Amino acid sequence: MDKYNKLNSDPVLKKILATTQSELADKIKNIQDDIKYFFMKKEMVTFGYFVEKMDVASKYGHNISVRCYRDGFSQYTEFYKTLTKLLSSYGEYSKGVIDDGKKTKFKQNLFYHDLHLALMKYYPVTGDLKNSDGNDCSLYKGRFEIDTSKGINNCSVYIDDELIDSGVNYNDAVRKMEYFFSVIKKPVSGTQVIKKINAETDSNGKLVRVVGMADVIAMPDALFRWLEIPVSNEDYDQVNTEFDVSLERLKKFNFINDDYFSVSYSYKETLKKTSEIFNDKLTKSYFEKAKKGINEEWELDHGKINSYNTIMDGIKKELQMTLDEFSQRYNTINSNYDNMLRVITTMISELTQELKGFLRI
User: Fold this and answer.
1) I need a surface site. Which of 2, 55, 94, 285 has the fewest CB within 10 A?
2) Do residues 188 and 322 lie in contact, with contact meaning Cβ atoms separated by under 8 Å?
3) Angle formed at CA 247 by CA 245 and CA 250, multiple of 5 degrees
4) Residues with Cβ within 8 Å of residue 5, at least 6 apart in sequence
5) Do 161 and 63 contact (CB within 8 A), yes or no?
6) Is 161 helix (H, G, I), strand (E, B) or coil?
C-alpha cells in the first residue's frame, strides 16, 4: 500500500490521468475506484462493529446501575416502612401517667428490643451477609463472573448470572469487573458496600472462574447511634481491604504460575472478618440490656419524652433522605440512559447516511 500511495501521489501520473484519454488510463482509474470502494466498505464494517460494541458497553453500564438502584430502592422502601412505622408507634409503649401527670410510664426497653428485632432483618451476622434468621439482608446483591474455562482470549462475562459479553480477552474482562465495582461504590448516603472476589480452579489447578460480589447494606447512622451499635465506615473499610488486594492480583495474572489460592484465601478472610466485626458490634450494643429489662417500666418526664421524640424525628428524617436519594438516582439513571440512546441513535443514523452517500459517489 505504501508503494501504491507513493505512485498515486506522483505528480506526473496525476497529470497523465487528468489529460490523457486511453485504455490504460481508464484501467488505472477503475483500479483506483475499486480500492477506494474496498476501504469504504471496510470503514462500514468497522463502524458497524464499533456501534455493536458501543451498544454492549452502554447496556452493560446501564444494567448494573439500574439493577443496583432499582433493587436498592425497592428493598430500602421496605426497610423504611418497617422502621418508621415502629418509630411512629412509640406512644403505644406508654403505660399511663403518674405523679399528677408530670411523668409517664413507658416500656422503653421493650421499644428498644422491638427496634433491634426490626433492624436485625437487615443486619449481617454471617460472612455471606445473612441475618440472624438465615436470610439475605442486602439491599442489592451484585455478582460479576468471568468464565475463563475456554481460555484467556475467550472469556465470557456474566452479571447476575446473565451473559453480557463473550469472546473477551481476560484483561478486558478484568477491566469490565473494575467498572462493575466502580458503579457500585456507595450508591447513596445511609448505605455501605461490601466487596469480595473469589478465584475458582478445577482439579488440575487451572483457573476456570473469577467471581466478584458487591452487597449494598443499609447503614442508618442515627439509629445505630441511638441503639448503641458501634458500626462505622472504618469497619467497612477494614472488611474491604482484602478486596483491594485481590483486585490488584487479578490484574497481574498471566496464567503462568499464578497464585490463585491467595485470592480464594482473601475471600475466606473477608467472610471471617465480616462475621467477626458485625457480631462483635452487636454484642456491644444495647440489645442485651433491653432484652433483660424488657418488662421494666421507665418513668419519664415531659422533657425526656420530648428529647426521645426529637431523636426519633431525626432518625426518620435521615431514613427519608436515603429513600429520596435512592429514588432520585434511579430516576436520573433512567432519564440519562434514554437521552444517551437518542443521541447515539441520531449519530448512527447521520453517519450511516453520510457513508452511504460516499458509497454512491
Assistant:
1) 2
2) yes
3) 115
4) none
5) no
6) coil
Say how far apart CA 91 and CA 199 lie, in whole Å.
52
Q: Which domains does the chain have, with CATH numbers?
A: 53-346 (1.20.1710.10)
CA distance 224 to 20: 90
pLDDT of residue 41: 46
Straight-line distance from the first to the last Cα atom of the chain, in angstroms, rounded to the nearest whole number: 23
Q: Which residues of 63-95 are buried (b: 16+ CB within 10 A; e: fewer)?
A: bbbebbbebbbebbeebbeebbebbeebeebee
Tell me the three cell numbers of residue 55. 451498544
Contacting residues for 61 by C-beta, under 8 A, at least 6 apart: 179, 183
For residue range 230-279, list pLDDT tens digits in order. Answer: 999 899 999 999 998 999 888 888 777 778 889 999 999 999 999 999 99
Angle at 351 between CA 345 and CA 357, to 5 degrees: 135
Bridge-based pairing state of the strands 94-98 and 162-168:
unpaired
Cα-based torsion angle of the residue sequence 148, 152, 155, 160 in order, rounded to the nearest 10 degrees = 50
Low-confidence ranges of the chain (pLDDT < 70): 1-62, 186, 335-361
Please tell me the distance from the alpha carbon of residue 94 to that of residue 300, in angstroms, as a whole number: 10
Q: Please report which helix (H) or strand (E) contains residue 107, including its range.
A: none
Q: Helix %, strand %, coil % for the chain, to 5?
A: 65, 15, 20
Predicted confidence at residue 204, as pLDDT, reads 87
**239 Cβ neighbours under 8 A, 6+ residues apart:** 194, 270, 273, 274, 277
pLDDT of residue 287: 92
How many Å apart are CA 60 and CA 121, to the nearest integer?
31
Q: Would you state the pLDDT for residue 43?
A: 46
Among 184, 208, 186, 183, smallest CA distance to 198 is for: 208
Query: In sequence order, what are the residues at sequence separation of 6 or more whose Cβ sits closer than 8 angstroms to the Cβ of residue 296?
Result: 107, 108, 109
Check residue 182 and give its pLDDT: 83
Report yes or no: 330 and 73 within 8 Å, Cβ to Cβ: yes
Residue 188 is predicted with a pLDDT of 86
Residue with cell 467472610: 271
What are phi and psi for residue 100, nearest 5 degrees?
A: 55, 35
**β-bridge partners, 209:** 147, 200
